[in-house]
Amino acid sequence: MKTLKPLIIFAALAIMIGACSYNPNNYSCFADIAPEGWNDTVTFTFTPEIEDSIATGTLNLLVRNTNDYPYSNLWIEIESREETDSGLRTRPDTVCIQLADIYGNWHGSGIGTSYQLKRQVYSAYTVRKGDSIRIRHIMRPTTISGLEQIGIIFEVNEK
Fold it and tell me: For the purposes of burial, counting CB atoms within 10 Å of the CB of 3, is it exposed (0-12), middle (13-18) or buried (19 or more)?
């Protein structure tokens, strides 16, 4: 029984370490939004650094906001490239992210006055090495305040 206990502990550790997998094509990056607000002329550009020349996975958008954000949602435009029958073309998509419910309770998680929300934008998104993803807000006011960061998280779909 004494020799069985270390063997069980070793096997459990091996399983836990094996469950942690690193994928060189996963990518995340965040951009700080100026304290005076996000002007609609400011476009954030993210260029995923992946090891392979092409990878397919889930593209998520991450928003960090404070209690000072005056709206319940955030309208953004995501511009990226997609492959079509006639070649690569730029694809703009409009996305509405609900940051709060109808009662003003923030979605996501956070401590104090800062909240973080992760939303899936595409479930089968293809990233090509060197291509960029551009994000800008398309809200009615030209400058919106109460946002701290915007970012993307790309996770390769495991087969």
Answer: exposed
Asked if 61 contacts 133 with a C-beta cutoff of 8 angstroms, the reply is no
pTM of the model: 0.78
Number of Cβ atoms within 10 Å of the Cβ of 10? 10
**Amino acid letter, 32:** D
Q: Is 137 exposed, middle or buried (0-12, 13-18, 19+ CB in 10 A)?
A: buried
115: Cβ contacts below 8 Å, ≥ 6 apart: 64, 65, 66, 99, 106, 107, 108, 109
Residue identified by tokens 């319940």 is 72
- pLDDT per residue rounded down to tens, the chain (159 residues): 566 666 666 666 556 555 555 567 788 899 999 999 999 999 999 998 888 888 889 999 999 999 999 999 999 999 987 666 666 667 789 999 999 999 989 998 888 789 999 999 999 888 888 889 999 999 999 999 999 999 999 998 776
CA torsion 143→146→152→155, rounded to 10°? -150
Strand (E) or helix (H) holding 14:
helix 4-19
